[in-house]
Design a protein that fits this description.
It is a single chain. The protein is α+β, with helices and mostly antiparallel strands. The protein folds into two domains: 48 residues, no CATH class; 189 residues, no CATH class. Helices cover 61% and strands 17% of the residues. The strands form two sheets. It has a five-stranded mixed beta sheet with strand order 4-5-7-3-6. Helix 6 runs antiparallel to helix 7.
């Protein structure tokens, strides 16, 4: 009996020792490895590194709710962003020679480090006369915009219109920079994860996500470059007109005697033309029609005589046959 009791106690002790041993080992391994961090390979092989979801990687760099992202806060901490303003101007000037002045404005833009966007030269016929006019759009450095406008207006006979506008795009520029830094950080993280990935499907999934992030990065860079170039180079739209085209329309005094004289003169012209028509009708048109009608009439008479000659015997034969039938 004592032996049986000792055997039972020994078996219980062995199970307790085994249980404590496995429980402690599992807890210790749990401190270093989590089920989501390691996935075991097929057939009991070596474990493969698990890849976190793509959305989690990108969202970790997205702006926080109710405030700015950490990247944007870092930009703000580095210092105040210099204001980014897009300045443009539009004016109309009256000159003696629009074509020559337009060439001078194009050369002015090149000398200031800018360029000509577009230019056109045409003849305006709205006033009933051909008046030369031109239009040119140039871009010059924004810091030299005042100097460019002064040079354009120099020597002009008149400046009937001049408009200048400015658009502050600082907030948009800072926001685009923050988005760009966030996308670049997400790209670096994805590339690190792709380097550690071992399974082909994981590498492919990360590669597709990297392509999407890189596309967004290029789009943001293009928008930032556009804002920088627009702020660095101001657009100036210049319309060039001649002095005659800028003159107001003048309405002379009403003169009834002039209208009456013109009406009588037109009546005389009508009577002269009518008499000329009658003379032409009698001496030219009617004789021509008569000369044409005589041969046509003779042809008609000859045709009718031939027709009657050949059709009469047939009529007589038919009448004779009808009389014989009646008899």
């Amino acid at each position: 009996m004592k032996r049986v009791l000792l055997i039972i106690l020994a078996v219980i002790a062995v199970f307790l020792v085994i249980g404590f041993a496995f429980g402690g080992g599992a807890t210790q391994r749990g401190l270093f490895l989590s089920p989501s961090a390691v996935s075991f390979g097929y057939g009991g092989g070596e474990a493969d590194m698990a890849v976190p979801p793509m959305a989690a990687v990108v969202d970790s760099y997205a702006p926080e709710e109710g405030g700015r992202s950490s990247v944007e806060r870092e930009i703000t901490q580095q210092g105040t962003q210099e204001r980014l303003v897009i300045e443009n101007a539009e004016l109309a000037i009256v000159v003696e020679d629009p074509e020559a002045r337009m060439a001078e404005i194009g050369n002015l833009a090149k000398e200031m480090g800018g360029f000509v966007v577009s230019s056109s030269f045409y003849q305006d016929t709205s006033t009933g006369r051909e008046l030369p006019q031109g239009n040119i759009v140039i871009r010059v450095p924004s810091e030299r915009l005042d100097e460019a406008l002064a040079e354009i207006k120099k020597g002009a006979l008149d400046v009937p219109r001049e408009n200048r506008s400015g658009e502050d795009v600082t907030n948009q520029y800072v926001d685009l920079q923050a988005q760009l830094k966030a996308k670049q950080a997400a790209e670096e993280k994805l590339l690190e994860i792709m380097d550690r990935a071992t399974r082909a499907e994981d590498v492919l999934a990360i590669y597709l996500q990297v392509q999407n992030v890189q596309t967004e990065i290029e789009r943001l860079k293009g928008q930032i470059q556009y804002l920088e170039e627009s702020a660095a180079l101001s657009a100036v739209n210049v319309q060039l007109m001649t002095e005659e085209s800028n003159q107001p329309i003048e309405i002379g005094p009403w003169r009834p005697e002039g209208a009456a004289r013109e009406a009588i003169q037109n009546l005389i012209f009508f009577f002269q033309n009518f008499v000329d028509f009658l003379i032409t009708l009698v001496l030219q048109i009617l004789p021509s029609l008569i000369l044409i009608a005589i041969p046509l009439y003779l042809v008609y008479l000859g045709g009718r005589a031939v027709y009657r000659r050949f059709s009469r015997p047939k009529v007589e034969v038919e009448e004779t046959k009808s009389e014989e039938i009646k008899g």
